[in-house]
Amino acid sequence: MVTELPRKEVAIIGVGWSGGIIASELTKAGIEVVGLERGGERTVDDFIMQKDELRYAVRYDLMQDLSKETITFRNDRDMRSLPMRQMGSFLLGTDLGGAGVHWNGQCPRFLPYDFEIRSQTVDRYGEEKIPDDMTLQDWGISYDEMEEHFARFDETIGTSGEDNEMTAPRSTEFPTPPMKETPAIRLFKETASDFGLHPYHGASANLSEAYTNPDGQTIQQCQYCSFCERFGCDYQAKSDPIITVIPTAKETGNFELRTHANVRRISYDGERTDGVYFVDTRTGEEFFQPADIVILTAYVMNNTRLLLHSEIGTPYDPDTQTGVIGKNYCYQIMANAQGFFDRQFNLYAGAGALAGQVDDYNGDNFDHSDLDFIHGGTIQLTQTGIRPINTNPVPPGTKQWGSEFKQAKAQYFYRTLSLGSQGASMPYRYNFLDLDPTYTDNFGDPLLRMTYNFTEQDRNLAAHQTQRMAEIMEEMGANEVVANPDIGDYNIMPYQTTHNTGGVIMGGDSETSAVNNYLQMWDCENLFVVGASAFAHNSGYNPTPTVGALSYRAAEGIKDYYENPGPLA
């Protein structure tokens, strides 16, 4: 039996960065909001003195339980899709705050090129530059329209950083100065300058100094403890939803948080939604939460899966290239170069977003006329700090056990540097998301199926970035440089990045996109779908600041819709 709860003005599904931002903005405007979070509640007290690498980095304490829900994966439609049984290529977060709790904190803005990528590519290089099976499209909005929302996210989290001519233009200064420059980062920046590049200190949510945001929430100064990615911050020095936007929403008195509330379906009559069905994961009780407006902010995978399961929107068909739900799944094209040095660096200290980087090979900052790919990626030396269990850098050919391994590990523990490139991921006709016809979760609902492989575009981009990084690393003075330009086929193992995007993409019309530029569903005007699922491709950067900016943009639209219901312009 399903218990119907009292109606709310707004129901939010998933309370991480997007859900928290929208909850804080709506509740400050006097709108009554309920947040449905399928995980448990997390507070800052949960992370006090919890620098436990085994618990969080190895055993994934903050991540989704794959024995109850996972995804299935295949490279192409001729392969059998099988469930992902252990955390590998990406880490799906759970509990209040979601991935916003265990992120590293890197805060770059997407480039103006990203939002109008098809138009700008065609204008500069012609239609022939875009391969036939690359489903590239503009986002239905420009960077100039987005800039104020990026600034709002920066103000909320207190971003530390410095301006650079290769990055997106800013209307405001960074709220806090850049982080410290370590000897390793200084070496990279000096070498990059010798190559004629434009190095700078990366934008960071690990703050260089204590900061109080416009909502009155305080983020502390980073202690460079090296426990950022996969961890909550016990110093409260890494901006996350549970120390910024979620407290702001709670303080208004207009926000009700329901944890352990797993939404299984959005109610939909073919035109509108009137609420959501969820189950209490502790008791098994089923509830219906009526709502005037529903906001879906449940991460890329769950946003797509819930829409497909609720039969909202038209599923994407790669054969006919019709439909939009599941379309343009993208990832991130990772490349790296590792250098082994005689010189010792203090690498034990670090932070998730402590980095020197260059963007000369990102976006369309360089000429692609004679290159067999478009876009590019940022190149970074990120000093995240080295932890003892998972850090074992040794040169190729070293035995992986015994005295030789131990001697090499002791030698190179502080003498190994890595350069990494986060390359942009372009959409491809046959990379998509749909519901698996065979496998279900512990409630009997279909799992999400991912069909994805790297393309020639991806492989060519990765080879280009690898070559550039190898050149820089060699010039930095490494005795041995290890860099493999061939990324091969995508595999669900090992870990690469949690930068999944697409599936519910935004755009200028309902034929090619699922949501408009306020992230309002074309097919259901009182349903907004917010997150990186809206990205029509993935840039050469971390996605979180763009997710934050889109969330502020969506909140603005939702408030307008609340006052005057109807499709937003």
From TrEMBL:
Residues 159-180 are annotated as: Disordered. Residues 428-550 form the Glucose-methanol-choline oxidoreductase C-terminal domain. Its EC number is 1.1.99.3. Keywords: FAD, Flavoprotein, Oxidoreductase. Gene3D superfamilies: FAD/NAD(P)-binding domain. One of its GO terms (molecular function) is gluconate 2-dehydrogenase (acceptor) activity. SUPFAM superfamilies: FAD-linked reductases, C-terminal domain, FAD/NAD(P)-binding domain. Belongs to the GMC oxidoreductase family. This is Gluconate 2-dehydrogenase alpha chain. It comes from Geomicrobium halophilum. The lineage of its organism: Bacteria, Bacillati, Bacillota, Bacilli, Bacillales.
